[in-house]
Amino acid sequence: MGIKERKERERERRRQQIMVAAKRVFTDKGFSKATMEDIAKEAELSPGTIYLYFKNKDELYASLSLRILQYLVIRLEHVNAEPFTDAAQRLTALKDAMVDVYEFDPLILINMFHMQSSETLRNLSPDLLGQIEILSRKSLKAMANIFEDGIRNEMFIDKHPTAVADILWSLFSGIVLWETSKKIINDEKDFLKETFDTAFEIFSRGIMRH
Predict the structure, then answer these.
(1) Range of the domain at 18
(2) Rounded to an integer, what distance in angstroms lies between the CA atom of residue 165 and that of residue 33?
(3) N- to C-terminal Cα separation, the chain
(4) Total number of domains constituting the chain
(5) Which residues are 190's β-sheet partners?
(6) Is 97 exposed, middle or buried (0-12, 13-18, 19+ CB in 10 A)?
(7) Residues 23, 44 within the same domain
(8) What is the pLDDT along the chain (210 residues), one digit of tens a residue?
């Protein structure tokens, strides 16, 4: 391994070290109260070192969403690859994929939904924003492909597949954020899965051909 490769590997290792520390701090303190100094302390690095890798807290916060977007694309592509001949099976596989993405990392998924509806995106570097946009488009396209294939095989009603994917994603993100806010008031109640099951059942009845 050459010097350049070693430096790149070390840089990526340090970047991951910072992101792990940031996730701990955001979990403990929340985004608004967390500081770059808190993250530096958790990572056992100087604040100056943190800024060599991330220009601000928003960028560090947003970088955490890349991993879950990548996982979302993988899960949706798996659903696309399955040769389902039944509409209900296809929709069940899609629902399971979305729940799986939530369970993969609930905190980061919730943070990503908050980020998409805030000013955070305006504070990101062009490179990071570009990565988020590419993965977001890929995930939406993968979901739309599921509906497009179902429409082509006369499983689903003939509506624009991208619009249907947008509706389902909005439904999912809305339920996650709403149920999360309810849990802040009473953390003994967690009805996210039950609520999403009900919402998805209603959605499925509307999209399937009868």
Answers:
(1) 1-54
(2) 34
(3) 61
(4) 2
(5) none
(6) buried
(7) yes
(8) 677 788 888 888 999 999 999 989 988 888 788 999 999 999 999 999 999 999 888 888 889 889 899 999 999 999 999 888 888 999 999 999 999 999 998 888 888 888 776 677 777 888 988 999 999 999 999 999 999 999 999 999 999 999 999 999 999 999 999 888 887 777 666 788 899 999 999 999 999 987
